[in-house]
Amino acid sequence: MLTLTTDRRYRDCDGATRRDFLRVGGLGAMGLGGLMQARAAAAEGNQPVRDTSVVWLWLGGGPTHVETFDPKMTAPKEYRSVTGEVKTTIPGVTLGGNFSGMARVAKQMAFVRSFHHGNSGHGGGTHWVMTGYNNRGIDNGGLPSRPSIGSIAAKFRGPNHPLTGMPTYVRLGGISSDGPAFLGTAFAPFGTSGEARKNMTLQTKVDRLEDRRGLLTGLDRLRRTADRQGVVDGLNAFEQQAFNLVLGKAPQAFDLKLEDPRTVAKYGGGLGSSMLMARRLCEAGCGFVTLSYGGWDMHGNIAGGMNSRGPVVDRAVSAFVDDVHQRGLSKNILLVVTGEFGRTPKINKNRGRDHWAPLSTLALAGGGLKMGQTVGQSDDKVYRPKSNPVTPQDLMATVFHVLGMHQKLQFISQSGRPVNMIEGGNPVPALI
Known about the structure:
By secondary structure, the protein is α/β, with parallel strands linked by helices. About 35% of the residues lie in helices and about 15% in strands. It has a single domain (about 50-195, about 255-430), classed as Alkaline Phosphatase, subunit A. The chain has helices spanning about 30-40, 65-70, 100-105, 120-130, 150-155, 195-200, 210-230, 235-245, 250-255, 260-265, 270-285, 300-325, 390-405, and strands spanning about 1-10, 15-25, 55-60, 85, 95, 110, 170, 190, 290, 335-340, 340-345, 355, 360-365, 375, 375-380, 385, 410, 420. The strands form 6 sheets. The chain has an 8-stranded mixed β-sheet with strand order 8-7-9-3-10-13-6-14, sandwiched between helices. A two-stranded antiparallel sheet has the order 1-2. A two-stranded antiparallel ribbon has the order 4-5. Helix 1 (about 30-40) crosses helix 8 (about 235-245), helix 7 (about 210-230) runs antiparallel to helix 8 (about 235-245) and helix 11 packs parallel to helix 12.
């Protein structure tokens, strides 16, 4: 067995400090090549794949639709944005007062002001937006009943890019209901912590030629052992894929030291660094990246909360949109910014807003879609859609369109029945 260690330390969600490492060897699920073999064996086979990717920024907690992308300054005082508004580069369109950066790049974005569903629970709302389907049992301890869009993409494309080894679906931040449900664990997001992290290296000590030769020797030993035992048929391809994952484009995509320092500075740290990494992952062959930036459950003092969280998102998203546009990737990478629901339009006694699914937050950028517009309108007091309502399944169908997945896509459930991934949604006409 060959083990590669790194100098990078991190804390997982339990607060434990760990060191990144990778082991190549031990057949089956124990080795990286075996992991890829198991994941690929569960795939549906080769599918025609577009050179497109999705970066899904999740604002966990339920971001206010009013103070983000629909300030409605014509509404009575207790309904309008408490952070004011900023003019965008789209004539007549404004955003909440914390989003001057996004206002500057608004012609590369689309702001949906009629996104809605019917579940105002954190878990239930998350399941609906992430999967396209409601599940009221989630908030009472139930399990996800439908696969997330990212897992569907991994099932359709195959779990890993055939050339770079990059996982099709990568999670940079935890979101509930972002998993595969009945599609199976082979199509779960490839996380950057826990067991998945152990199968990838971010900064390896294999720069010297002899170290690379040693890695090749270890992989060759694995191949010979597998051949003798008759365990893996055609392991060479998976070894090569594992090699690409360790020393090819995949680990380089995670290393921001390889990025232009001016670009790193433009994005900033924290969420900005994750957004930059997401762009790099997409360039290396990843098809779907999820990021999470929480803290939006603002039942009180929404002005203070927005002044804290809003500028962070504004800087990261505007840098991402600008960067992708300048690099000529706007047709290849779609950014989705959303959360589980919006907030009640009327300010409550604590100067905050409560859960409100009938109108929710949604913005998009790139993906070859029509940008520089708002989609739909809210009513006079930003309670509900006034025109062109957009549902989670419509969003799902739009993402399918970008990724080249057909609208009548079916997979077999655990009961052996074919199940439509989309049953009632359609791509948003104004965006196509």
